[in-house]
Design brief:
Aldehyde Dehydrogenase, Chain A, domain 1, Aldehyde Dehydrogenase, Chain A, domain 2
């Protein structure tokens, strides 16, 4: 069996232990494409982990300027190779080249790398705190251990294990990354890794700072996730896979930041529906079917009042869905999972309004709307919150605003929750009734726009209560907040000035923002009496 | 069986399910003291959890001013009752009334409650972030679920489940607390709960915001810790107990902040030893035996160079330990655990220099020094890092600074690590060699002072890498940082201004520090064009 090489310990090399091989498939046709990639075993995972662990202290001691230079060189390298990357990603995912891959996702990825570089240069992620009276100084520091990143199927660039937010965050905090690519886009991942490795050599980071594995089986993954030499895990993917890795990591005291699943409820308040229901139907349809609906923030449940305005929305939305050709999904696995999800919703009492069938060739599924009344939803909230990952949404018809709040109250933790309200203020009283119930159950509360589209911003929260993620306090997107996941809190207690890290010294030539005795300042600290 | 009542759902009431009773013991004599307290069962835990869960949304919606008023009324109530509290705590723990309980720990506890109130008033813990271009605003918010707090044996006030840092932090973030007292000081906990409850009634918080249970068995505790209605757990105590609770919580996606164990290595650099070795021996002895050595930050391992200066330190330290009477420990359980710890150290090759024996009456153990050479330590680092909770320390004799760094490198995660260096600069080259190895393995790096003594400061880290705690990114002490453990990250995406929480609105009449477009500011935000 001949396969593409792994990137391990500064070298592109064939697996030590080749347990199998796989090829990508063209989702449009279902045909295999590109070269064979290795399913590797324990020996390769061990080689990557040892190399990363050995590199961790050197990377932690690398000047921030070199880290930033790497992130920027990598961004530039991606841009220079954009055309080839977009071709590969399109072939492996069937996502449109324009605008999605070329104009949206690739620029988002390079922007993210550059924002990480900016956070490195500004030291913003280190959050320096100084208490002069107590002689204490604290900041966030590298874990000094490797971070294992699992990329999902749905963002070949922006969440790729070797290029996305988790990657940029872990590297910004000066931790080596072991990237586990998603097996549905291996060639895209390989090409990104080549660019990353070139940038790494150019900027002189330790060679094992960036490594790439393509695939390993569950047992190998769980063993790796529970290895005490790891510092943290970043995972985006399915709930079952993420929870298995989290369980292994938890048992070893390793923080696992897992982003799992979300149905992103959207509440259409009565005034909004009366005012612009037909326009909302179009907006909803576009969001639900964009990228074949394969977004963590896809609007999977829409809460629609009964009555004429609600009915008009449903009629308009149904027409949009009916007019659309089957959507191409990433893989046979996604298709099968989606079919199961729809079956679960139907079994729990939801009726298919439109769609509900597979298409051909390749992996296709018709954009699908289901509907259920709120009483049924409230009787089987668990089953009716099943994530149907794809161009599928469930409409929940409610009697009134009070029942909207009831429905809001039974949602599990979600990444987002959305309220649409009237421009004329007629929903101003309804808003807090629903928002009060929804707010603690979602990471991001959205007003009058669909949940798809996650801005890379310091004020973003792409996270949420369990089980949308494993911890309600962290975001996977947005610099510098996403970086803090991969840091340790370090305090210096009466440590001599000359032994302090740069950002905690008295002099502050870079104008780093520091919380000094309760006030954010960017100036020097007056030297104290000798400590 | 007649026992003291529980505080559940706004009422002092007898357990629904009384599975047993226990009394405190006077550690000086081993005799039972005070009334009987209940070991309760599932029905009581369920009652407390339901009540707390029902109160959580109301508490989350309580104006911060009321929360701060409660914390301050509670602090004032503790001060007004200080004499009685100190008597009770002394009787139950044998800790000295002066200075420890009356002059140090009680003021620290009230200070902590007031600092939490200050963080509530300043909104510092909410960390508001605004991105005007993206239309996004984020802050930290209540979990809107109860927090379960387990207090340890060793701080009857400052870490008490009903009064300590976890309690103050969880309440400051507007989450109800279910306090699980430590069974070695039930009367102190009961009296604190009475004061807390009076303050609660006075300031009008929901009655179930503060509840007290005294004791339950392992199965009941694990069931509670894994109940999805919980928002988080704060635990300080033994490694075995904390890991069992963490495992239950992890499986349910509940963040468990556990503070487990630490040996707090202290490195005496050669210059410091030459300069002031005999004074350091006195300083070390005082720190190791204060509070009978029952501190999470007790200096449990001291790394001492071989040679004349090191020998002189050992001789002086040994003399101090030999001159001291046996220390009174909290309980028979602590004594037995300590004996086991010392036996493990001996079995692994450590020799007892002084002490190593129990005393009478009650629960007493002689201040104890053990010693081992570094080669032996490096061969059995796991066993020789066994925490011996009490007035016990292990000296590790090293050949040179290089071997000091080797020893530093094999430590597990610890709360603290300390370096003593010469005032004349002769250790300036040795410092980074040892500090580089030690830094990633400890939460707080300390210069030239013993690790006991944890300042309540914004720049404190009372936390550290696993297994000293369950997560390297959080501190259990220090406001506002300790509060953030019990919060969720909430983002508002294009939410209408009038529906935003106070600290995220355009107008900022309270001068809250907010990170706006990358700059910390305390002024108003210019209203944008209508969103």
């Amino acid at each position: 069996m001949s396969t593409q090489p792994l990137l391990v310990d500064g070298d592109w090399r064939l697996p030590l232990q080749l347990l199998g091989a796989f090829r990508a498939e063209n989702p449009m046709t279902g045909e295999p494409i590109g070269p064979a990639y290795p399913l590797c075993g324990t020996a390769d995972v061990e080689a990557a982990l040892s190399a990363a662990a050995a590199a961790a202290e050197a990377l932690a001691a690398t000047p921030p300027e070199h880290i930033a230079a790497f992130l920027e060189a990598y961004a530039a390298g991606i841009e220079a190779d954009a055309e080839a990357l977009v071709e590969l990603a399109h072939a492996e995912t069937a996502l449109p080249k324009q605008p999605r891959l070329a104009a949206v996702e690739l620029p988002r990825t390079t922007n993210q790398l550059r924002l990480a570089a900016k956070a490195v240069r500004s030291y913003a992620w280190t959050q320096p705190v100084i208490d002069t009276a107590a002689g204490l100084r604290a900041h966030r520091a590298p874990l000094s251990k490797p971070v294992l990143v699992f990329g999902p199927n749905n963002f070949p660039f922006a969440f790729n294990a070797i290029a996305g937010s988790d990657f940029a965050s872990a590297i910004a905090a000066r931790n080596p990354v072991i990237a586990k690519a998603h097996p549905s886009h291996p060639a895209t991942s390989e090409r990104l890794a080549q660019i990353a490795f070139a940038a790494l050599k150019q900027t002189g980071l330790p060679p094992a700072s960036v490594q790439l594995l393509y695939h390993f089986d569950y047992g190998v993954g769980a063993r790796l996730a529970g290895d005490a030499r790891l510092g943290a895990i970043g995972f985006t993917g399915s709930r079952a896979g993420g929870l298995a890795l989290k369980a292994a990591a938890d048992a070893a005291g390793i923080p696992a930041y897992v982003e799992l699943s979300s149905v992103n409820p959207v509440f259409l308040l009565p005034g909004a529906l009366a005012e612009r229901g037909v326009a909302l139907a179009q907006e909803f349809f576009a969001s639900c079917t964009m990228g074949s609906g394969q977004f963590c923030t896809n609007p999977g449940v829409v809460i629609v009042p009964q009555g004429a305005d609600g009915d008009a929305f449903v009629v308009a939305a149904t027409a949009h869905f009916a007019s659309a050709a089957p959507s191409v999904l990433f893989s046979r696995g996604v298709l099968e999972h989606l079919q199961k999800g729809v079956a679960t919703l139907r079994d729990a009492g939801a009726a298919v309004l439109v769609g509900g069938s597979v298409g051909e060739p390749g992996f296709r599924y018709a954009p699908t709307l289901l509907s259920v009344d709120a009483d049924t939803f409230l009787r089987a909230p668990q089953a009716l919150q099943t994530e149907a990952f794809g161009p599928v949404s469930l409409l929940v018809r409610v009697r009134d605003v009070a029942q909207m709040a009831q429905v809001a109250q039974v949602f599990e933790g979600n990444l987002t929750g959305t309220l649409y309200s009237a421009n004329d203020g007629s929903d101003d009283a309804a808003w807090p009734v629903v928002a009060h119930a929804l707010r603690p159950r979602v990471g991001r509360l959205i007003g009058n726009r669909m949940p798809t589209g996650v801005a890379v911003s310091a004020a973003m929260n792409h996270g949420g209560p369990y089980p949308s993620t494993g911890h309600p306090g962290f975001t996977a997107v947005g610099m510098p907040a996403a970086i803090t996941r991969f840091t340790a809190l370090h305090c210096y207690d009466h440590v001599p000035e000359e032994q302090l890290p740069h950002e905690l010294r008295d002099r502050n030539p870079d104008g780093i923002a520091r919380l000094i005795d309760g006030v954010w300042r960017t100036d020097d600290l007056e030297p104290e009496a000798p400590r």
